[in-house]
């Protein structure tokens, strides 16, 4: 089983601890909608990974079987240590190019869209990295690193990175920050301040950034402002993955140069054809006066969204654990239900005027599906009760859309 799936309870445990500390200390490191959006995006990345990762893993397996130059014993601790270090080196270059090439950034930018920096931000992962990222790890197959080893050390690398996404830990002793990525150093990487852009790419060992001139400490005079300058302004986790590609397609469609239609995908991040800059202007945020995207919800709506996402997280973990044993048809069905559920809940978070109707249909589909998961009477009774309770809670706060909601819905459609 994927080590990341096994680590999900650990992630949730420490996330809850940080949320409690944030509440007690009133640090304002969390925003409810942003946190939910990050978690939803992370869940989608795991769900799509069940299908998408099969192809790159098969390519790696083939290269390992046919072209491995060395043989490393999986029983030797040195194999795992070497693999862990080499993986982080490969990750550095993948991560660096993901910031420097338009099409790679379109995939990776999902992780940087959050305007907060906390443990939920770590969970905010792209669903399309499997299309490109595997290329950077193929050299490990030629070096003879067993596929199981790379899956494991890759998972450990990601787990380490989870814990550096926090503001509760400040700068650490200089000898630690000379070797390892720390919360302060990685916070710099998430900053959109000019001095912090394209710095500190490493996952575990910051020595790669020191060696290749991409190292930057957090300055006492300039606190990182998190997020990206082309803000997403949406709580839809699926749109979060699609929007960056849509912007590239939009530029490719509008530019009159056939050459630019092709090369813009591989140009440095942010590059746009001159004719498109004039005809399709875009607004960018200013780190010095950033207004964070937020849509205030009534307390009852926040409770509803929180409860529904808690249920979806439980269903997602259950699905990910059982995924290896499920048929392709069931995998696609469950994936579809979960994806549609998160899209529908994002409409509720954005207070679209028709969100209550879409969400009502979503509840009927979801709880009908849950009803069929188990033939036990108590399970079916529980699913019915939860469905009725959810519908009543939804109708309680959302049956009569206010003029403010209409205005928000119009603004969302026009962005």
Summed up, what is this model?
With 415 residues, the chain is mainly alpha-helical. It has 19 helices and no strands.
In words, what does this structure look like?
- By secondary structure, the protein is an all-alpha fold.
- It has two domains: 3-211, no CATH class; 299-414, no CATH class.
- 63% of the residues lie in helices and 0% in strands.
- It has 19 helices and no strands.
- Residues 400-408 and 410-415 have low confidence and may be disordered.
Q: Structural class given helices, strands, pairing?
A: mainly alpha
Number of strand elements:
0
Question: What share of residues are in beta strands?
Answer: under 5%
Number of domains: 2
Mean pLDDT: 90
**What characterizes the major β-sheet?**
none
Shape: globular
Distance separating the two termini = 41 Å
Listing every helix as H and every strand as E from the N terminus to the C terminus, the arrangement reads: HHHHHHHHHHHHHHHHHHH
Helix tally equals 19
Q: Round the Cα radius of gyration to an integer and report it.
A: 22 Å
What portion of residues is helical?
55-70%
Low-confidence stretches: 400-408, 410-415
């Amino acid at each position: 089983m994927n080590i990341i799936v096994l680590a999900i309870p650990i992630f949730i445990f420490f996330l809850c601890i940080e949320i409690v500390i944030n509440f007690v200390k009133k640090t304002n490191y969390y925003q409810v909608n942003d946190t939910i959006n990050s978690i939803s995006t992370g869940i989608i990345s795991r769900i799509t990974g069940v299908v998408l990762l099969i192809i790159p893993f098969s390519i790696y397996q083939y290269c390992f079987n046919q072209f491995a130059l060395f043989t490393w014993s999986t029983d030797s601790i040195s194999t795992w240590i070497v693999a862990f270090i080499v993986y982080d080196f490969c990750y550095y270059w993948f991560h660096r190019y993901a910031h420097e090439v338009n099409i790679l950034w379109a995939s990776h930018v999902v992780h940087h869209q959050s305007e907060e920096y906390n443990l939920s931000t770590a969970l905010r992962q792209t669903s399309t990295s499997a299309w490109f990222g595997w290329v950077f790890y193929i050299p490990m197959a030629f070096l003879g690193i067993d596929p199981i080893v790379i899956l494991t050390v890759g998972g450990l690398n990601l787990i380490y990175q989870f814990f550096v996404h926090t503001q509760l830990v400040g700068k650490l002793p200089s000898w630690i920050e000379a070797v390892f990525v720390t919360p302060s150093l990685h916070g710099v990487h998430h900053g959109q301040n000019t001095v912090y852009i394209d710095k500190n790419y490493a996952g575990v060992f910051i020595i790669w950034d020191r060696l290749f001139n991409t190292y930057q400490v957090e300055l006492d005079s300039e606190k990182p402002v998190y997020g990206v300058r082309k803000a997403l302004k949406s709580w839809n986790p699926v749109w979060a993955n699609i929007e960056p590609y849509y912007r590239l397609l939009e530029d490719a469609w509008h530019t009159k140069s056939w050459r630019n239609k092709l090369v813009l995908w591989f140009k440095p991040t942010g590059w746009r054809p001159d004719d498109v800059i004039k005809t399709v202007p875009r607004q960018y945020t200013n780190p010095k006066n950033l207004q964070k995207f937020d849509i205030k919800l009534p307390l009852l709506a926040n409770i509803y969204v929180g409860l529904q996402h808690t249920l979806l997280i439980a269903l997602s973990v259950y699905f990910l654990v059982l995924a290896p044993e499920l048929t392709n048809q069931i995998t696609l069905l469950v994936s579809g239900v979960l994806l549609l559920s998160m899209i529908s809940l994002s409409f509720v978070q954005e207070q679209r005027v028709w969100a209550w109707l879409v969400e009502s249909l979503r509840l009927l589909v979801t709880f009908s599906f849950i009803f069929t998961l188990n033939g036990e009477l108590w399970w079916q009774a529980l699913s019915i009760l939860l469905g009725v309770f959810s519908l009543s809670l939804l109708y309680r706060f959302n049956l009569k859309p206010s003029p403010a909601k209409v205005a928000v819905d119009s603004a969302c459609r026009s962005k």
